[in-house]
Structures are given as C-alpha cells and as structure tokens.
C-alpha cells in the first residue's frame, strides 16, 4: 500500500507540473512561461516632487531597457496619493495571470523621511488603466499613534493562506524599522487587519526594502540592513508567516557604494535570476546574475538604460502586453523587431483557420493544449483583422457541459461557413472521446449547439487500426457538395447531407495515401486541382511534419509528388514538430497562408513526450511553384506581417 500511495503522489505531482493548470477550475494558466517574451520596468526617477511618480520602461531581453512616454510619469501621483508623490513601485502579476497589482510608498521626500503614514494599492487588468486606494496605517488601525513612516510595500501571493500578502517596513517612535505584513482584502482596496511582524533580523537592527521571491518551495527575502554595515542580505523560509527565517550573514551587493531597493526577477526561458539594486549615492543601478540566489556576478557591462531609475521592479510580460503599453505610450526607436510566431499566447494546437464573409474577420479554432495526455475538454476561438493580432473570444464549446455523448479529449476541430436561405450558418466539427461530432451556430464565435450525437462513432469497414479523430470539412467549389474527412492511420471521406450534420449513405470511402500518412487531413482547391495535406509521424516527435498530394477529385485518388514535404522543423532555430495544419486563402487573391502547431518554443523540446501536448500555433506564408507544386515552407520565429 505504501508503494501504491507513493506512486500515486508522484503521478499527481508530475501531472500537476505538466498540466500547469489553475487549481480551481482545471484550465491551463492564462500565461505560460514560454509566452513571457519581454519585460516591464516600473520605477521613479528622483527626489523632486515631479520625479516621485510611476514611470515605465520596457526591454525585450532583460538587459537593454528603454523608457516610455519620454521618461515621464504614466500615472499622475497627485490623483492617486495623499502626499502628492509616490516612490518605490512594486508590480506583481496575479495568480489568474491577467490581473496586475502595484503597491507604492505614499510619500514625497520634500516633506521629510519621517513624513508618511500611508501606502497606495493599485489594481489593473491591462497595465494601462489602474484603480487605486490610499491605505493610511495610522488612521485605519489602532496602536499606531507613534508611527513615523511606512516604506517600500510589496506584494506576494501566499498560497497557504490563499491571499495576497502586502509586506513593508514601518518605524514606530525610536524603534528600528521592521518588516510587517497584512493580507489585502478581496478587492485589493485595503488591508484585512492591523499589520503583524513578518521579519526582524537577529541583530535586532533596522531593516527595510524587503523583496521576496519563491524558488523550489523556498521563500527568499532580500532586504537592506541598516545596522552595523548597511547593505543587502537575505533570509529564507518555507512558511511566510511562521517567523522561522534562516539568515545568511553575507552581504550580496557587489559594490562598496551605498545601496537600497533591491529587486530580483527571473529571466524569461532561463534558469538565471537577476538581482538589481539602487546605488542611490551614485544615481545608478547595479545588476547581478545568479542561478542559486546565493552567489552573484556583476553584469553591469551587459546592461543599458536610456534613463536613470530609482527603486523599482521588473515584471516579465507577454508580447500582447508589450503591445498594449507601447500602443499607449509609444514604441522605443531602438526596439528590435517583434516576433509574431506563435500567433496565440498559451498552449494550443491543431489550428483550423477561417475567413468569415459575415464578419469580414479571420478566426482560429484550435485544440486547447497544455493538458496532460491531451485531456482537454473545451474549445475556444480567436479572431483577428490582420492575421497578427488575435483576440481571445472565449470558450465556444465545453464538452462537459454541452456534449453528453463525449465529455473528454476535445481535439482538432474544423469549421465551415454556409449561407442557407440567405443567412450564414457555421458548422463546427470536433473530436470528443475519439468520436466526431458537429455543433451549429449563427456566428463564428458561437455559442455552438451540439447536434446531439456523434456523426462518426466507429471505424470504417475494413479498418483495424487508428482512431476516429481529426475531422476536416471541405466544400467543392465545382459542385457545391461538402465533404467530411477524418482518421488517424487512415484517411476517410464521406459526403455530407445538405443538413451538414449527417453523412450521405453509401458515400464513405478510404483514400489510399502511403505509409507517411498519420493524421490531420486538410483539403484545399486551387487552379482546378485538389490539394490534400496530412501530418507524418507522431505529434510527440520532433520530426512531426506536413506532406501533401494532389488529385483531380475531392475523393481521390492522390498523385504524390516526389518532394512532397510542405513544412518540417528547423532545429537550428529551435523549431520542432511542425504539423497538423490548415490553410487560408485570402479572399479573391492567390495568396495563401499555412497555420500549424509546433512544440512550444523554446521549452517544448526539453519536455520529452510532454512536448506533444504543450504546443503553440503559428502562421507562415504558403507559396506554389509555377507547375502547381508547393514550395516547401521554412518555419519562422518572426511569423508574417499584418495584412490589410
């Protein structure tokens, strides 16, 4: 029994790691680590009232930073503060991945270093618009009559308590500064209780500017000690509120100059951390790098900034978050080109792409990925005006709620737009529990209603291997007839009835391909020819790729060109497992794009088999040779340019 229980625990831990799912509803995180591709630096710039404000800078690599808004404030201190100035901004991404929390010292130095009794709490869902609240510790909570100052608040999520902890230093009367904490209320507009002591160093001397990061289940507190020799030290604990801290006596700053306001962050797609601190007497920052949070190497020669920050923090952000703030405050001139692959942020696969004549927009319908062993249960769609900027339109079909005959394994959808009696209808074919269903809607974004039963529920006659998965729907422009294709290890086709939710009797057949066929059939029509695409190998394999054949009919037979690879990985760029495609033709143009998935970049190749269910969606240009054959597509990290 012990062995069984231990095995179950290990399996649960592995499953939790691989799925990286939200603890409450089983949905993968809004932001996967691999989608963090840039950095936001939040800081203030000086001791004049007009300099005590929130400023933004951005970086694409964590080393080169450029100020936004001409290095002028992005939030008006006079509106959000009680003193007219703010200092020491700290920013945190919430547990939901899309809510941001900022806390500030409510203070202007012109009124003296012992002049403030308050902090400011801010909350945002877009990094542009913030709702703020002033929390005056002295007037809100009893026992703080001799409170002199409240400095440098920061926020961390305490998983044990299930709440956001705000921690900060306070000084009462002649006592030294100590680090206190209190939990924020649900709306992040106040504190639940009178602050309690979080940390007091064994020296009993003053400590300020606490900064906490969690690594491997251990909380590391970086702080400035002001007793004996001032400088930055660290202490660790596994329980934030236990009071049990293990202190490291070593000073961490790599300079003899005065320092304060340390902040540590993890570099994107790396095991490295950067600890930075304000060398305030020299008006500059020092950056150091570490892997273990104990040994630090100065990297100042690698760092550049076109501004002089004071006491701030750095937050890893996504491409869309970077775009949102640069749309608001401008893109730095020296910024390098922004990549557009993947086109969707998060883990998604098996992309179906559609142009809607009704809305004049493009849509991607993917498998929701990031679930252990492809165990996702819902489908989403994304819309775009230009094939580059995609909006999450939300869940359009939830198997657990909407499909009683198949509540698991939501895979590989496809869709067709049909005009019936003057109105557009959308027929959405999908895999559920290794069967194929169809749902219908009046709009490309749903809601979709399941037809009530599987349209394909068993293997075709004579087929002894494979699965009934990966539907594709194609309407022949010559005849107006619509066909459904499906199959893993075999390629099946059947004509759809005019109701589009049932198969026409006696039309089912198996199309012969060759041993390269695995799954993912997709059919297009161009210049009198029918092009059949399929995926070779296993989606867990780095060699997963797309091949094609050509036919004079939507039901075959196929002529397979000698060189028939459409797209395959490019290992020298870290691109692997490019497969399960769909194809888009720009309306009324001989202009084509291929949408496909690949292992998540750059982490997927390191995941082993789990790379096969941690995939991302990309788009690249698809071109044809003069003889009608397809030019092999070279997958890119850059993606495509926005179309007009």
TrEMBL record:
<keyword id="KW-0732">Signal</keyword>
<comment type="similarity">
    <text>Belongs to the glycosyl hydrolase 43 family.</text>
</comment>
<keyword id="KW-0378">Hydrolase</keyword>
<protein>
    <recommendedName>
        <fullName>Glycosyl hydrolases family 43</fullName>
    </recommendedName>
</protein>
<dbReference type="InterPro" id="IPR052176">
    <property type="entry name" value="Glycosyl_Hydrlase_43_Enz"/>
</dbReference>
<keyword id="KW-0119">Carbohydrate metabolism</keyword>
<dbReference type="GO" id="GO:0045493">
    <property type="term" value="P:xylan catabolic process"/>
</dbReference>
<dbReference type="InterPro" id="IPR006710">
    <property type="entry name" value="Glyco_hydro_43"/>
</dbReference>
<keyword id="KW-0624">Polysaccharide degradation</keyword>
<feature type="signal peptide">
    <location>
        <begin position="1"/>
        <end position="20"/>
    </location>
</feature>
<keyword id="KW-0326">Glycosidase</keyword>
<dbReference type="Pfam" id="PF04616">
    <property type="entry name" value="Glyco_hydro_43"/>
</dbReference>
<keyword id="KW-0858">Xylan degradation</keyword>
<dbReference type="InterPro" id="IPR023296">
    <property type="entry name" value="Glyco_hydro_beta-prop_sf"/>
</dbReference>
<dbReference type="GO" id="GO:0004553">
    <property type="term" value="F:hydrolase activity, hydrolyzing O-glycosyl compounds"/>
</dbReference>
């Amino acid at each position: 029994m012990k062995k069984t229980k231990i095995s179950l625990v290990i399996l649960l831990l592995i499953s939790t790691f691989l799925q990286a799912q939200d603890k409450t509803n089983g949905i993968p995180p809004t932001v996967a680590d691999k989608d963090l591709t840039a950095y936001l630096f939040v800081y203030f710039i000086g001791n004049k009232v007009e300099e005590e404000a929130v400023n933004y800078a951005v970086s694409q690599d964590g080393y080169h930073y450029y100020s936004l808004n001409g290095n002028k404030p992005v939030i008006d201190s006079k509106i959000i503060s009680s003193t007219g100035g703010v200092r020491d901004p700290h920013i945190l991404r919430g547990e939901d991945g899309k809510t941001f929390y900022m806390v500030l010292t409510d203070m202007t130095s012109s009124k003296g270093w012992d002049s403030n009794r308050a902090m400011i709490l801010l909350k945002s869902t877009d990094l542009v618009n913030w709702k703020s609240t002033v929390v005056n510790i002295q007037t809100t909570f009893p026992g703080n009559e001799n409170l002199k100052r409240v400095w440098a608040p920061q926020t961390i999520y305490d998983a044990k308590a299930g709440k956001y902890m705000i921690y900060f230093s306070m000084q009462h009367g002649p006592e030294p500064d100590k680090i206190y904490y209190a939990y924020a209320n649900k709306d992040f507009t106040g504190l639940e209780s009178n602050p309690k002591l979080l940390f007091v160093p064994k020296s009993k001397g003053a400590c300020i500017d606490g900064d906490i990061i969690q690594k491997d289940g251990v909380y590391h507190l970086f702080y400035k000690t002001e007793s004996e020799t001032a400088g930055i030290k660290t202490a660790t604990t596994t329980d934030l509120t236990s009071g049990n801290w293990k202190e490291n006596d070593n000073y961490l700053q790599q300079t003899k100059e005065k320092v304060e306001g340390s902040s540590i962050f993890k570099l994107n797609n790396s095991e490295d951390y950067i600890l930075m601190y304000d060398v305030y007497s020299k008006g500059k920052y020092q950056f150091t790098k570490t892997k273990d949070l104990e040994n630090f190497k100065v990297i100042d020669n690698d760092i550049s900034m076109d501004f002089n920050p004071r006491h701030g923090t750095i937050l890893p952000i996504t491409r869309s978050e970077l775009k949102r703030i640069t749309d608001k405050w401008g893109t730095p001139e020296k910024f390098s080109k922004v990549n557009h692959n993947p086109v969707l942020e998060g883990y998604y696969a098996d992309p179906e792409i559609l142009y809607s004549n009704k809305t004049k927009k493009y849509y991607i319908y993917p498998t929701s990925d990031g679930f252990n062993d492809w165990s996702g249960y819902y489908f989403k769609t994304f819309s775009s005006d230009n094939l580059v900027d995609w909006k999450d339109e939300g869940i359009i079909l939830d198997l657990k709620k909407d499909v009683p005959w198949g509540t698991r394994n939501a895979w590989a959808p496809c869709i067709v737009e049909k005009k019936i009696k003057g109105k557009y209808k959308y027929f959405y074919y999908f895999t559920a529990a290794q069967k194929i269903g169809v749902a219908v809607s009046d709009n490309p974004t749903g809601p979709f209603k399941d037809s009530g039963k599987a349209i394909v529920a068993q293997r075709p006659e004579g087929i002894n291997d494979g699965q009934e998965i990966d539907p594709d729907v194609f309407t022949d422009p010559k005849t107006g007839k619509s066909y459904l294709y499906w199959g893993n290890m075999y390629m099946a086709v059947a004509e759809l009835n005019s109701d589009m939710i049932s198969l026409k009797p006696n039309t089912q057949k198996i199309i012969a391909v060759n041993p390269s066929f695995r799954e993912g059939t997709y059919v297009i029509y161009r210049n009198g020819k029918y092009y059949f695409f399929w995926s070779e190998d296993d989606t867990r394999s780095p060699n997963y790729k797309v091949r094609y054949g050509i036919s004079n009919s939507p039901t075959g037979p196929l002529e397979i060109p000698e060189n028939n690879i459409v797209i395959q990985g490019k290992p020298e760029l870290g691109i692997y497992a490019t497969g399960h495609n769909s194809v888009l033709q720009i309306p009324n143009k001989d202009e084509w794009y291929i949408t496909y998935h690949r292992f998540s970049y750059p982490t997927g190749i390191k995941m082993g088999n789990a790379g096969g269910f941690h995939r991302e969606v990309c788009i690249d240009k698809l071109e044809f040779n003069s003889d009608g054959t397809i030019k092999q597509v070279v997958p890119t990290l850059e993606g495509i340019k926005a179309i007009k």
